[in-house]
Specification:
This protein has 341 residues and is α/β, with parallel strands linked by helices. The chain folds into two domains: 199 residues, Isopropylmalate Dehydrogenase (3-Layer(aba) Sandwich), CATH 3.40.718.10; 125 residues, Isopropylmalate Dehydrogenase (3-Layer(aba) Sandwich). It contains eleven helices and twelve strands. It is globular. The two termini are 17 Å apart.
Length: 341
Amino acid sequence: MAAMESLPLLLTMGDACGIGPEIIVKAHAEGAADDCLVVGHPQVLARASRALGLEVPLALLGTPADAPLRPPGSLGVLQPAGLPDGLAQLPWGRIDARCGAAAAACIAAAVGHVQRGEAAALVTAPLHKEALAAAGVDFPGHTEMLQALAAVDGALPPVRMMLANDELRVVLVSIHVALRRAVELVDFDSVLQTIRIAHDAAAAWGQPRPRIAVAGLNPHAGEGGLFGDEEQRFIAPAVQAAQALGIDARGPFAPDTVFMRARHAPGHAGEFDLVVAMTHDHGLIPVKYLGVEQGVNVTLGLPFVRTSPDHGTAFDIAGTGRADASSLQAAIRMARQLVGR
C-alpha cells in the first residue's frame, strides 16, 4: 500500500445535472485540487468546463495509481463501469433517475478505491435525494449510503454527521428523518454514542481531549421538566456516563445559546470544541448561518475520511457558471487535514 501522503483524494461528481461538476472543475482550475482525482463521467465534466468558459483538459485513468501519468494541468477522471448513457445531454437543473443512478455508482466506486488503500480520502459533491429515489437507490443521502458501503459482515458502523467551519463544529444525534421521528430517536444510547463518536473522531484528528457541549432538545433545555423531560431522562444521564468514561462532556445546555458559547471567532475564544445537537436543523442552522461557502460536512465513524460541501445541487443556477466552489475547496482542505497532510 502506498504511503497516505502520496495517495490521491477522490472527488465524486455528484448529480450530473447539478453544480457538482462545475465546482469540481472550478476548484481544479483554481489550483485547489491538484492532489485529487474525480470519480465521474468525463463528458459531464467537459460540459461543466464549457459552462464555465474554461478549457480544462481531462485525463481518463484506469486506476488511482495512474495519477502520476496525467499530463500537466489535466484533471484526472476515473469512470466507473455502467454509468447511464446520455448524462451530458440531460437538461441542467432537472431531477432525473439516470443522474441518481450515476451518483450512486460513483460513490460506490470511490469507496471501493479508498477501502482497497488506493486513495487517501473521499470528498463528495452534492447529489439530489429525489434523483436517488427515482433511481431506486434506497438511501436518503450520502451518510446512510456510505454507512452501508462500510458495513462489515452486515454490521453497519455507527456514524454521525458533523458540519464544521473555522468557527463551529457540530455533531448530530439524528439526521435525515422527520422531526417527529428525530425526537423519538433521542434516547440515552443514541446521545452517549454520539458523544463517544465525536470524542474519538477529535482524538483521531489530533485533539485527544475535546471540550464537548451537549445541547438540549427542548426550549431552555427543558427548564427542569416544564417544557419536556428528555433532558432529565436521557440527555443528562448520557453526559454523566460520558464523563465517567473520561470524556470532557458538559450539558445539556439550552440549544438557543450553546452555539454562541462554542463559536470561535476573532476576539471570542469559544468555550467548547464541539457541540452535540439532537436534531438536524438544531445543529445545522447555526453553522450554515455563519457561511455556507466555508461549511464542510464530515461523516464521523467511517473507517475512512469523508467530507463534502455543506450545500446541495443548486439546480436553480446549475449550468450558469455562477456556482461558488469555496465550500468544496474547504472540504478538500478538511480532508487533507484529517488524513494528516
